[in-house]
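Its record is retained below.
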Amino acid sequence: MGERGAVAEGLRAYRLIAGMWIRSSMTYRTSFVVTVLGNLTVTGLDFVGILLMFSQVDSLGGWSLPEVAFLYGLSVTAFGIADLLLGSMDVLGARMRDGSFDTLLVRPAPVLAQVGADRFALRRLGRITQGAVVLCWALLSVDIDWSAAKVLLVPVMVISGAAIFSAVFVAGAAFQIFAQDAAEVQNAFTYGGTTLLQYPPSVFGKDLVRGVTFMVPLAFVNWVPAAYVLGRPYPIGLPSWAAFASPLVAVACCALAGAAWRTGLRSYRSTGS
């Protein structure tokens, strides 16, 4: 089977498995609505914390509340999409411990599609909705000298950011294969990464900003392109075209994550249970 055929087969398997879990969750619709609202409320507490912070200060690292809300909305919406699509990857370690991962290996479907769609949870739409609401409010409130390029960058940031976070989920799952679990390490880069990006880069040390820009390039989810949109200098020197590099960074991250996943699968040794 060629590469395109493998991708098509993976997408088909993902759709079928995710559809099964969606039908299961919609069996009890009242429970589904309650869990979505609960997820929306819990994730919204992060922004409540930011609002409480701004009740005591006028700016954070020189950034106003609408500007920080812009970063927050971009980060949470992009992460929410990746979490909806691949949020189950962090349980891979538990599957390896109980031996159920071996079952996935013998099924006639790509393993990545099976792991990614496992326990697909529509309740995670609450995070996406909450992030999108904050992002819309920020776009209406922030003072931006809009241009065609800046308007285009907003949806590009959301889509590219979701792809970058998805790559981190997959790379983290590959690391779990090598480390025989270590889900906490993966969560540090996924959930920890989106929390980091909710705040302006100017409040962090330059070494951390360099690491998030060049080593694990989460900064291209929102920090780098958002600095261009808001007309703010980035804490470390970058060429002007870097603001438009998020799609290229996303493609590179997905390619590297795919390679890491394939390497992890080849090196996997069954627990024997």
Summary: Residues 171 and 259 are 9 Å apart (CA to CA). The chain has a mean pLDDT of 89. The chain is about 70% helix and 0% strand.
